[in-house]
Amino acid sequence: MVVKINITVIGTGYVGLVTGTCFSDLGNRVYCVDIDENKINALKKGIIPIYEPDLEKLVVKNYEKENIIFTTELEISLTNSNICFICVGTPASDDGEADLTAVFEIAKNIGKLMNHDMIVVTKSTVPVGTGDKIKSIISKELKDRGVEYGFEVVSNPEFLKEGTAVKDSMRPDRVIIGSDNDKAIAILKELYAPYVKNHERFIIMDIKSAEMSKYASNAMLATRISFMNEIANICEKTGADVNQVRLGVGSDARIGYSFLYAGCGYGGSCFPKDVKALIKTGENVGYTPKILKEVERINQNQKYVIINKIKKHFGDDLTGLKFAVWGLSFKPGTDDMREAPSIVIINEILKAGGSVKTYDPKSMELSKTILPKDNVEYVSKRDQVLDNCDALILVTEWNEFKSPDFNKIAKTLKSPVIFDGRNQYDDEVLSKFGIKYYRIGR
Ligand code: UDX
């Protein structure tokens, strides 16, 4: 394939690594830059720091083809590129505000090191107005150096989901380009064109609206989930069933079915952090976002719904009881444990005197570094978890947990009871097996 565009991607986390790899797969030459030397050395050997379907084979293939270069040398990368993507993390600070230290540090370095004109694209989720700050930082550095290179700052938020990140990048619902510069817009359109056959998927807007679109999208999805969790909690007290209600609500074409699943709370690196950051953005300009505050509060509470059901069944003191836990990651398809409901549920069981035996297809090694060591046992097979346990808790709906051998569960658990945080099973089927079944919203 012919090399088309030379690109620098700064940051090799979820967004950077997936973005860089997908651009390289189109035949572009991509410099993936990170300050973490160990990570870069591992990537050169084909060791991927995260689990993400299809990513490893694409990285290896394109590294062998020399379409991807892994490096810690930002200067060389920028020298060889005309476009650079900022893809570093913007974690929540203690007060919920997005921490932009890494983004601003990179802007400074770009200003210090660029030696020709450059398009600087922010893919990291950044609060409204960050693009302008990046512009000022780069301008100042160029001025201090006494050089006059042209540059444009563009917002191009990333909407990929963990677990389907490669697919999402290669088939985006939309590509938002926040810029008023025709040349920068044209280059980004050219770059994305192979992944966006239908050009109507490009949405061009001003940079601030592009920055806000990312937060508003995540906040809307988080709101739908918290809304359904709230409905689920009302269902539990009124005798309605949230599973049925979801069908009744989602069938309205104006609403749709997706992101209406009640559960034991949303986790991950984006929803919790972005809802908090958007609240902070509002507060910083004198506006208190009331809905968003409740979205966040409902989600915190929702992580306790399962433990409350456990205590209602067994009593507050769980001493001597052992709980089988299926799934640890915040959702299926990833090993990511950030803000995972499993952390809250397991810690609460331990606090109440119980112990835990667990299995997750991908995140057990990571969990060992996050969960308490005492009274948490890890096993390597789904059904092994059940031995000597009093009850089963489903926390993450991996495929292999979706249609288990209920007969075996009924026979192996000491008192056959399942607490389902993801509403995966059929109440009638479980009752036939003599299993007491607790789920969300019924
Ligand atoms: C999210 C956004 O979807 C993505 O566009 C953005 O770029 C990053 O944040 P991600 O965090 O990878 O992606 O996961 P997602 O699939 O959106 O799920 C987030 C959380 O919501 C998970 O904990 C999931 O279990 C939960 N969820 C999702 C529900 O509880 N109910 C639902 O109906 C959907």
Overall form: elongated
Question: Quick one: CATH superfamily of the largest domain?
Answer: NAD(P)-binding Rossmann-like Domain
- Low-pLDDT segments, ≥5 res: none
Lateral strand order in the biggest sheet: 3-2-1-4-5-6
Query: Can you count the beta strands?
Result: 14
First-to-last CA distance: 56 Å
Using the coordinates above, name the CATH class of the largest domain: Alpha Beta
CATH topology annotation of the largest domain: Rossmann fold
Task: Round the Cα radius of gyration to an integer and report it.
Answer: 24 Å
CATH architecture assignment name of the largest domain: 3-Layer(aba) Sandwich
How is the quaternary structure best described? single chain
Number of domains: 3
Helix count, DSSP H or I runs of 4 or more residues: 17
The distinct bound ligands, ions and cofactors come out as: uridine-5'-diphosphate-xylopyranose
Could you tell me the strand content as a percent range? Answer: 5-15%
Strand pairing plus helix content: what structural class?
alpha/beta
Arithmetic mean pLDDT? 96
The share of residues in helices is: 40-55%
Keywords: NAD, Oxidoreductase
Binding site for substrate: 159-162, 214, 259-263, 267, 331
GO molecular function, one term: UDP-glucose 6-dehydrogenase activity
Domain UDP-glucose/GDP-mannose dehydrogenase C-terminal: 324-427
